[in-house]
Specification:
CATH class: Mainly Alpha
Strand content: under 5%
Distance between the termini: 37 Å
Shape: elongated
Order of helices and strands: HHHH
CATH architecture: Up-down Bundle
Largest sheet: none
Number of strands: 0
Number of domains: 1
Number of helices: 4
Radius of gyration: 17 Å
Length: 120
Amino acid sequence: MKKDTTPETGLTTLLPPACAALRNLYRTARHLPSTDPYTPARLARIADQAEYLLDSWPAAQWPGALHSGQPLPARAVLLAWVATARRDIDYAGTAAGTSWPYPQWHRITTTLLAALVPFA
């Protein structure tokens, strides 16, 4: 007898492609070294992409939890963390040859990763 593999109602949530894109942004940001001369510009780009993906996610499709079963913060909270990281990046600068001190890189990266880690 063939087992029915259709999911029961309410047990699965189809997530938009933005979820996978945010996961990839997290994985990219997580591995950026503080000494790389392109890290400031790359973090700025990741923050821009994260903001776009979070902002364009349909509100009606925002999940209450992801794969881990832990509650997902509200979209406004994640957008606020990304905005904080963007503000800090803009203040620190991303011009060619810009080098951030380690504590500044750590603070900015940690804030950005906090917004992306639910999708990891």
